[in-house]
Amino acid sequence: MNPNNIITHWIRREGLALLTDFYELTMLSGYLKHGLAEQNVAFEYFFRTLPKHNGFVLTAGLEQFLNYLENLHFNQDDIAYLESLKVFNQETLDYLQTFRPNINVWAIPEGTPVFPHEPIIRLTGPLPHLQLVESFLLNALNYQSLIATKTARICLAAQGDPVLEFGLRRAQGPDGSLIGSRGAYIGGAIGTSNVLAGRIFQIPVRGTHAHSWVMSFDSEKEAFESFADTFPKGCVLLVDTYNTLHSGVPHAIEVFKARPHLSPAIRIDSGDLSKLSKAAHRQFTQANMPDVRIVGTNDLDEDLIADLKRQGAKINTWAVGTHLITSKDHPALDGVYKLVALEKDGTWAPRIKLSANPEKATDPGLKRPIRCYNQDHQPLADILITDQESHAQGPGSIAIDRLFLHQKRKVSNIASTEELLVPVYQNHKYLGTPPTLEQIRQHARQCLACFPEEYLRLRNPEIYWLGLSPELAKIKKSVLRDLNE
Q: Distance (Å, rounded) from C-alpha 227 to C-alpha 208?
């Protein structure tokens, strides 16, 4: 991993073993008491529902989970604290004293579009080990995937215009702001205002100035001149402190005219952004500066950006804060972590969770998601197959509805298939070289570019098909039948 990653360094120094839900530790203690310390199991991480109006989720956060897994241990202060709770017996405390996770991990690469009930991460190993890591995995993947997805939608609305993440001051705490910046970069933002996130993750940092800068000088023009002379590189002038069209824009034009070496750029943070940006652009055009960069801020989200684009607003850079970093209209991804199989006598016995809500029932056993593409490399559907099956081949494959097991669908015109779940961590080490953040970001962009527009639209997107192979459906029927007998 990146040796300059401050978060990784902090984890290595302090550890995050206690960043878990209490019941993970009590279950671990119970497993030890009942002789299940060596019971091998398989868990899967997936989510159940798409965020509001979404047709996809971009997975993100795997790197943080693997950092945690690599460095997970209990130090003496952790053990002393757990002992002070007077809940855990000495056997549990001794077990944790020398604990090191022995877990194998398969994952869909970060930046890949994924869909409800699709296994995004699979883990195998001893039951106490896999139980302990549940809470951190959910924390790492749920939030960051949500922010990457929100940013991707904002970038789709911006139609190729640069998008900046300006969410630090509205994020849920310092850690949320840092991981949110990483997720936003994966989702397509070109930079962040968060300087520490820039240092940790090597994300480009961007910014302008606040109204307080303008108000600190005797005149608006003096404030603009001082800023332009102090920070000529990437100079962007905030023009709405007093009067956008009658004061801010004219003064900005004067400042840029007197400094022809600067690229004209302004920011508008209030008022009717469509009307003001068009009027500001006219003034700059009349001043022979038609290529002015106009940065729009002020509580933006993908719907407002799309509406402003429809109105012909002349904003060509979008800086988004609150709605991006909090995913304000859908602030939590319902990712879950479920046991799907136990190893018995050298074979994996499938396990299923049932519920009064049918959509909450899981798909049992070890399985792999296969993505099917047409001849133009556009995704057609994802099919979950058993670990013993090969890729779906040929021009068509049968997929079974995961809820209504009597319903079949033929996925036609398959030209190629892709194995989504790949091994990433085994025998206490990474497999291969982890991708850089820039590579993850490019992967996300390339994946989204392959999807037809109907899956990416901001309202009423087409529902992407995820089905079970006939063999996996047969196993699910058998498990359900055995439970009902």
A: 10
Task: Please say whether the structural domain 6-147+331-484 has been given the CATH code 3.40.30.10.
Answer: no
> From the CB of residue 358, how many other CB atoms can be counted at a distance below 10 Å?
9
Determine contact, residues 252/237, Cβ cutoff 8 Å. yes
Architecture of domain 151-325: Alpha-Beta Barrel (3.20)
Is the dihedral angle over the CA atoms 186, 192, 195, 198 positive or is it negative?
positive
- Tokens matching residue 68: 């945690």
Q: What is the b/e burial string over 460-474, where b = at least 16 CB atoms within 10 angstroms of the residue's CB? A: ebeebbbbbbbebbe
Structure tokens at 140: 């790492």
Q: What do you get for the CA distance between the two ends of the chain, in Å?
A: 50
Using alpha carbons, select from 281, 280, 296, 291 the residue that is nearest to residue 244.
280
pTM: 0.94
Q: Residue 134: how many CA atoms within 13 Å on its side-chain side?
A: 20
Distances in whole angstroms, Cα of residue 483 to Cα of each of 342, 353, 474, 478: 16, 11, 14, 9
Question: Which residues, in sequence order, are CB contacts of 191 under 8 Å at separation 6+?
Answer: 164, 165, 198, 203, 204, 205, 206
DSSP for 20-52, please give it.
Answer: S-HHHHHHHHHHHHTT-TT-EEEEEEEESSPPT
Determine the Cα–Cα distance for residues 197 and 177; give it in Å rounded to an integer. 8
Cβ atoms of 350 and 475 within 8 Å: the answer is yes
What is the tens place of the pLDDT at every residue in 90-145? 999 999 999 999 999 999 999 999 999 999 999 999 999 999 999 999 999 999 99
How do the domains of the chain map onto residue ranges?
6-147+331-484, 151-325
DSSP bridge pairs for 114: 57
DSSP label of 284: H
How far apart are the C-alpha atoms of 366 and 344, rounded to whole Å? 14
